[in-house]
Design goal:
Layout lengths: L15 E2 L10 E3 L9 E5 L1 H6 L10 H7 L11 E3 L2 E4 L2 E5 L5 E9 L6 E8 L14 E2 H16 L6 E13 L3 E11 L5 H9 L3 H15 L10 H24 L1 E2 L21 E2 L23 H15 L6 H8 L2 H17 L6 H17 L3 H10 L1 H8 L3 H14 L6 H9 L9 H12 L4 H11 L29
Antiparallel strand pairs: 1-7, 2-4, 3-10, 5-6, 7-8, 8-11, 9-11, 10-11, 12-13
Length: 493
């Protein structure tokens, strides 16, 4: 007998708590948002709303827009801004914290999709104790990018924070130019990050490290039993290492470059966190740098897996008061196998191969090398291959080297028991037609800045079903047109 889903709730019927705030003043400061004036709802994610049992249509109410723009709270919310530290571009930066984000509270969902707590956080809600010299605001440009990327990555099956809603107002904000203030309500089971532990370790606040570890394990790692005693901290580090390695593999397989892989931007749950100067690769290049302020290329696309491991080492140091050196080494040794296992599963699916045979590794390595040499569009090549070999060969270049790879590939594919048509269908379910190209995001941004929110919503709709054809938006599957060819993004993006 099927179990009926729980009834959807109005905004006022949602029940909020804030377990993170209950950790105390050492971890956060009480801070209510400062709303943006004359706010309008730009975009809303029904998929994210479903996770917290929010009733369809609530987003049309003025009360919802007031909440999403920082102009009102809902009963039970206990807003705080979190403190954390971080290594930025490999250098310890000391205290950082939620400079423009405020944790509103957490909702416990009863439905199967969203079971467990979901923290709601407003980004762009004004200054906090951690804003330093900044204004605590987000702008339309950065907020469109975060809203769309959050929901796009989820649709691609990549662990990520979510975005419930975006608003924009008319408050001027100075960045490289005068822009307009905006907010996003983002969601995650928790926003605890590597830097949340680092700040207390480097201050020798080892009791705080333990308190945060106990809180995180109890709430988000229920598979680690209290009866495990002190060894549970080692199990916790192992789980975080595994999740981080798997996330890096997902990024590499889909062609996603984060841009600012600082430890304060790494989720303890292995979620993609903080969408700033990200980019999806077009012409494939392992040296692709999506953040123009990353002059040394520390966070270039091809370096992401090694940076993920570097960050895990930094977390291991932060937990060294709880975990022995031997256990830390054991945990970190899990990273590389976890990465390669996940990466090869993803790449086999993209190739349409059921068996993870040894020969597939060379097949993957060879095609990635060829794509880099020929600067082929990453997303479009894999999508073409999921339709027919001739189209993919034409993109790669019909020469002896390419034909040799295809001969090897077809030899592997012939062992597949599925009919070719069924295999291609499975490939199209693993190779998206649409990713959020920076030039498409820029089109949405420019329209939104001009007061037209329809483009943001249309891009959202396409990216929520990225494996569908969407012939009316065929242009969004293509590489950047000339007018966007030299588009750059930075940390303020």
């Amino acid at each position: 007998m099927a179990i009926a889903p729980p009834p959807a709730k109005t905004l006022e019927e949602l029940r909020f708590a804030n377990s993170f705030a209950a950790l105390g003043d050492a971890f956060s400061e009480v801070r209510s948002p400062t709303g943006i004036p004359n706010a309008r709802l730009v975009a809303f994610s029904p998929a994210a709303a479903q996770l917290i049992d929010l009733r369809p249509g609530e987003e049309t109410r003025p009360e919802f827009v007031a909440l999403a723009s920082g102009n009102a709270l809902v009963r039970g919310m206990e807003p705080v801004a979190a403190m954390y530290g971080g290594h930025q571009f490999g250098v310890w930066a000391g205290q950082l914290g939620d400079g423009r984000a405020i944790l509103l509270g957490e909702v416990h969902s009863a439905n199967a999709l969203g079971s467990g707590p979901w923290e709601l956080q407003i980004k762009g809600g004004g200054m906090t104790a951690f804003s330093r010299f900044a204004d605590g605001r987000a702008v339309v440009r950065s907020t469109v990018r975060e809203f769309l990327a959050s929901e796009a990555m989820d649709a691609l099956g990549i662990p990520t924070t979510r975005a419930l809603a975006m608003t924009a107002g008319d408050e001027p904000v100075l960045r490289e130019r005068i822009e307009r203030a905006a907010t996003v309500i983002r969601m995650a089971p928790t926003f605890v990050r590597f830097g949340s532990f680092e700040i207390f370790h480097y201050r020798k606040g080892f009791e705080a490290v333990k308190a945060l570890a106990d809180y995180t394990i109890e709430r988000y790692f229920p598979q680690i039993a209290p009866a495990d005693g002190p060894v549970r901290y080692a199990r916790f580090l192992e789980a975080v290492v595994d999740r981080t390695a798997m996330l890096m593999a997902e990024w590499q397989a889909v062609g996603f470059a984060h841009g600012v892989m600082n430890t304060d931007n790494f989720s303890i749950l292995g979620l993609t966190l903080d969408y700033g100067p990200y980019g999806f690769i077009e012409a494939y290049d392992p040296g692709f740098i999506c953040n123009h302020t990353d002059e040394g290329g520390r966070y270039a696309f091809g370096r992401q897996p090694s940076v993920g491991l570097w960050n895990c080492r930094a977390l291991a140091v932060a937990l060294s008061s709880l975990i022995s050196e031997e256990d830390r080494k054991t945990a970190l040794a899990r990273y590389e196998p976890a990465f390669w296992t996940t990466y090869l599963v993803r790449m086999n699916a993209k190739l349409g191969l059921l068996e993870s045979a040894d020969g597939n590794v060379a097949l993957v390595e060879d095609i990635v090398t060829l794509l880099a040499q020929r600067r082929v569009d990453w997303t479009n090549f894999w999508r073409a291959l999921s339709h027919d070999d001739a189209s993919a060969l034409a993109m790669l270049g019909d020469d002896e080297t390419s034909r040799a790879w295809f001969a090897h590939y077809l030899e592997r594919a012939e062992s597949d028991p599925r009919a070719d048509a069924k295999r291609r269908i499975a490939m199209r379910a693993a190779n998206p037609k649409f990713v959020l190209r920076n030039w498409v995001a820029q089109q949405a941004i420019e329209a939104c800045e001009a007061g037209d929110d329809a483009v943001v919503r249309a891009v959202y709709d396409v990216l929520r079903t990225p494996y569908d054809e969407h012939p009316e938006h065929e242009a969004w599957a293509k590489t950047a047109p000339p007018e966007f060819a030299h588009l750059e993004v930075s940390c303020s993006s």
